[in-house]
Specification:
Elements: E1 2-6, E2 20-23, H1 24-27, H2 32-43, E3 51-56, H3 62-75, E4 80-88, H4 91-100, E5 105-109, E6 121-127, H5 136-146, E7 151-155, E8 166-170, E9 173-178, H6 182-191, H7 194-201, E10 208-211, H8 217-228, E11 236-237, H9 258-265, E12 272-276, E13 283-287, E14 290-292, H10 294-303, E15 317-321, H11 327-335, E16 338-342, H12 350-354, E17 360-363, E18 367-370, H13 378-392, H14 396-407, E19 409-420, H15 422-439, E20 443-444, E21 447-454, E22 457-458, E23 465-466, E24 471-475, E25 480-485, E26 493-503, H16 513-516, H17 518-528, H18 530-534, E27 541-542
Parallel strand pairs: 3-4, 3-5, 4-9, 10-11, 10-12, 15-16, 15-17
Antiparallel strand pairs: 1-7, 2-6, 5-6, 8-9, 12-13, 13-14, 17-18, 19-26, 19-27, 20-21, 21-24, 22-23, 24-25, 25-26
Bound molecules: alpha-D-glucose-1-phosphate-6-vanadate and cobalt (II) ion.
């Protein structure tokens, strides 16, 4: 029986960079999730007789939320649901499934790398028919509807079973519980040269480690790397997903993936190491004794794309988020293809990929992907690297060094200041904003400002405009300092400072990043007043 439940708006339901993310206890408030889901179903258009994909990263509250969404989907007219077994789907797998089954869209339950568990975070976002995150026009419409909501519709019935694959019915709505890994694994086998990768992984010398960080990619990595590609059992570590990610912080970077980093930098460390995040869309790439920055990784994948079966015919173009280093721009120039600069967040790449203007996309925040789906894709990036290593028969370190020698190096770092009081963060951004107009042409500690603005993006496909996407101060030698506030945090504000310097001198390509960038780092603090306003003397996380 369907029931109408009366409810009142919650003022904090505006989606951020990647959907609505809040503390679990916020989602556990009466009507909170239901309100958002109803606003979502109302915002996305005619849901009558449509197919909806549902899945999440398996964190605490995943299955509870799915049961609610199922009971609301039926009343909102959906004809068929496709749900990952046990409610699991990595973000890239969800994108793959939406596209493969021609679904109307999907609901992804994840707060990515944010800690999980009763005291952790939860999140929900809607992906459209192309498999990608809903554009701002839709996320804004969801928010507006959530602010006017007075009731929602839900079926009063028993929970469905998520534990076995197969088809069941809720009245006349068909529900297919699918293997969360199979479709995705098949897609990967279509893109990459699996026999070549298998030969590398089984040559008796090559050693690899993949850290799933107790999150969603465990089953994917085990199936693909160990089972299909023959990597030794135990290649995948922390491979059983847990509802609280074992109390960890599944963000694949030098700080949070410390166990892997230590192994990779040990004298007898493996040749290749990688990690993924809570929902499987991020990747970290390491070689023995070397960390590849995500910005460099994008550039290196682009420069080697012709080695991969799916990209053999060349790339249409490359896109990167604005704060991502300009390393890929150099490759695009050499390949004579277009380069696009978008705001932070994968939702801005969708139009470019749909219009066939770009093939590869990347963000400095450990996100890389291509037009095979419409989300960033952690394991895809790992397989891309393995495919390159298998063909080139060189070490990660050799490949990176040769890349710098050929294209020059973009020294790059990001400094995050987490959980600073919102008023301080706003004060800091205002202080920068006020300075912008007079900066052009000025010399700051020897760096001459080429231009300084608050980035706004004009989407060349649908002509939409996104404003206030980050303050950037760009110098005549190509170096940049960028400031923006995170749109995924759930507590206070997070300031991100992105610093980049360009080096073409062959004698200066192999210096330590923080040392090389120290003048620009100091300048960033001077301009923004980070220490004086926040009282913080050091970043929380450096990547
Ligand atoms: C961060 C990253 C951004 C990424 C987003 C979602 O956003 O900077 O590049 O797209 O997370 O990634 P923000 O607004 O906090 O800087 V994920 O892996 O959380 O879906
Ligand atoms: Co993620």
């Amino acid at each position: 029986m369907s029931t109408t439940i009366h409810s009142q708006p919650f003022i904090d339901q505006r989606p951020g960079t990647s959907g609505l993310r809040k503390r679990v206890r916020v989602f556990q408030q009466k009507h909170y999730l239901e309100n958002f889901v109803q606003a979502m179903f109302d915002a996305i258009g005619d849901t009558e007789n449509q197919t909806l994909v549902i899945g999440g990263d398996g964190r605490f509250y995943n299955e509870t939320a799915i049961q609610t969404i199922v009971k609301m989907a039926i009343v909102n007219g959906f004809k068929r649901l496709i749900i990952g077994q046990h409610g699991l789907l990595s973000t890239p797998a969800a994108s793959c499934v939406i596209r493969k089954y021609n679904a109307f869209g999907g609901v992804i339950l994840s707060a990515s790398h944010n800690p999980a568990g009763q005291e952790g975070d939860f999140g929900i976002k809607f992906n459209i028919r192309n498999g990608g995150p809903a554009p701002e026009s839709i996320t804004e419409a969801i928010y507006q509807l959530s602010q006017k909501i007075s009731s929602y519709q839900i079926m009063d019935c028993d929970d469905i079973s998520l534990s076995e694959t197969g088809t069941q019915y809720l009245q006349d709505m068909q529900i297919d519980i699918i293997d969360p890994v199979a479709d995705y694994a098949e897609l990967m086998a279509d893109i990459f040269d699996f026999p070549a990768i298998r030969a590398l992984l089984c040559n008796g010398r090559f050693q690899m480690r993949f850290d799933a960080m107790h999150a969603i990619t465990g089953p994917y990595a085990k199936e693909i790397l160990e089972k299909r590609l023959g990597a030794e059992t135990g290649t995948v570590i922390n491979g059983v997903p847990q509802a609280d990610f074992a109390g960890g912080h599944p963000d694949p970077n030098l700080t949070y993936a410390a166990e892997l980093v230590e192994e990779m930098f040990a004298e007898t460390g493996p040749d290749f190491g990688a990690a993924s995040d809570g929902d499987g869309d991020r990747n970290m790439i390491l070689g023995h004794g070397i960390f590849v920055t995500p910005s460099d990784s994008l550039a290196i994948l682009a420069a080697n794309a012709e080695l991969i079966p799916a990209y053999q015919k060349g790339l249409k173009g490359i896109a990167r988020s604005m704060p991502t280093s300009q390393a890929a721009d150099r490759v695009a120039q050499a390949l004579n293809i277009s380069m696009y600069e978008t705001p932070t967040g994968w939702k801005f790449f969708g139009n470019l990929m749909d219009a066939d203007m770009v093939t590869l996309c990347g963000e400095e925040s450990f996100g890389t992907g291509s037009n095979h789906i419409r989300e960033k894709d952690g394991l895809w990036a790992v397989l891309f690297w393995l495919n390159i290593l298998a063909i080139r028969q060189q070490s990660v370190s050799e490949i990176v060094r040769q890349h710098w020698q050929k294209f020059g190096r973009n020294y790059y770092t990001r400094h995050d200041y987490e959980e600073i009081p919102t008023e301080f963060a706003n004060q800091l951004i205002e202080r920068l904003q006020i300075q912008l107009a007079d900066l052009k042409g000025k010399s700051l500690n020897g760096y001459i400002v080429d231009y300084a603005d608050n980035f706004s993006y004009h989407d060349p496909v649908d002509n939409s405009i996104a404003e206030n996407q980050g303050i950037r101060i760009c110098f005549t030698d190509g170096s940049r300092i960028i400031f923006r506030l995170s749109g995924t945090g759930t507590q206070g504000a997070t300031l991100r400072v992105y610093i980049e310097a360009i080096e073409d001198n062959p004698d200066k390509l192999f210096e330590d990043t923080q040392t090389r960038l120290k003048d620009l780092i100091a300048l960033a603090d001077e301009l923004a007043g980070i220490k004086s306003i926040t009282g913080r003397t050091a970043p929380t996380v450096i990547t």
